[in-house]
Amino acid sequence: MNKLIRFGFTLLYTHFAWLYDLVATCVSFGEWKTWGATALQFIPTHGALQPKVLEIAHGPGHLHLTLYKQAYLPVGIDFSSQMGQMAYERLRQHQITPKLARASALHLPFANASFDCLIATFPTEFIAAPQTLSEARRVLTPRGVFIIVPSITLTSTGPWATLIHWLYAITGQKSGQTTPENEATKLVAEQHFAAKLGHYGFDFAAHQVYTQQACVKIWVLSAI
């Protein structure tokens, strides 16, 4: 079952990328873009200079477009060529010259200390890989931060919400209803992740942001 689910997600990110926005909108009560955008409030500002931001796994480009509109200096990478094309076309429609690359977070094609901020929203397991964390710290400036939106907890109720909770559960996504068991599992995973970050040169802080339909978890990894 896990292999089948992984295969389904792979298709959604690649050959069926054109369905991604529709699926994401349906399973998020229309809040998908809002959940990702919660990361922006944690971007540091250094005086009058706008931070240089690297978005890891930019997907169809919605958050990337928001970064441009808010006058940040964004660069994006994604390993999916289909997602890269979607993001490229979205930015060009807004008369923006995209700065996108097909690349892996395990091997970031950038010089040391190139960015003030890294952002990854709802990434897969690659985000906790030692090579990802090493590369993230390498390309960050000394006061930089790596902002991760790992999961949400739906707070909505009703028949549609029940169905969405069930879909999250059977696909193994990090969401679902707020229960003591679910919260304990998430806390253990968070503590395990945080415990190893000092080795890679990061301090760790966890935050929560509430929207109309969900509680969004946000991790802020500060370079030390």
Q: N-to-C SSE series?
A: HHHEHEHEEHEHHEE
Overall mean pLDDT score?
83
Instruction: Please give the largest β-sheet.
Output: 7 strands, mixed
Q: How helical, in percent, are the residues?
A: 25-40%
Number of strands: 7
Distance between the termini: 41 Å
Structural class: alpha/beta
Whole-angstrom Rg: 17 Å
Q: Percent of residues in beta strands?
A: 15-25%
Helix count, DSSP H or I runs of 4 or more residues? 8
Q: Give the strand order of the largest sheet, numbering strands 1, 2, ... along the chain.
A: 3-2-1-4-5-7-6
Low-confidence stretches: 170-181
**Shape, principal axes of CA atoms:** globular
Describe this structure in words.
Strand 2, helix 5 (81-93) and strand 3 (100-102) form a beta-alpha-beta unit. Strands 3-2-1-4-5-7-6 form a seven-stranded mixed beta sheet. With 224 residues, it is α/β, with parallel strands linked by helices. The protein has helices at 2-13, 20-27, 32-37, 62-69, 81-93, 130-139, 159-171, 180-195; strands at residues 52-56, 73-78, 100-102, 115-121, 140-154, 202-210, 214-223. The protein is globular and about 40 Å long. The model is unreliable at 170-181 (pLDDT under 50). The protein is 38% helix and 25% strand.
How are the SSEs ordered, and which strands pair?
Elements: H1 2-13, H2 20-27, H3 32-37, E1 52-56, H4 62-69, E2 73-78, H5 81-93, E3 100-102, E4 115-121, H6 130-139, E5 140-154, H7 159-171, H8 180-195, E6 202-210, E7 214-223
Parallel strand pairs: 1-2, 1-4, 2-3, 4-5
Antiparallel strand pairs: 5-7, 6-7
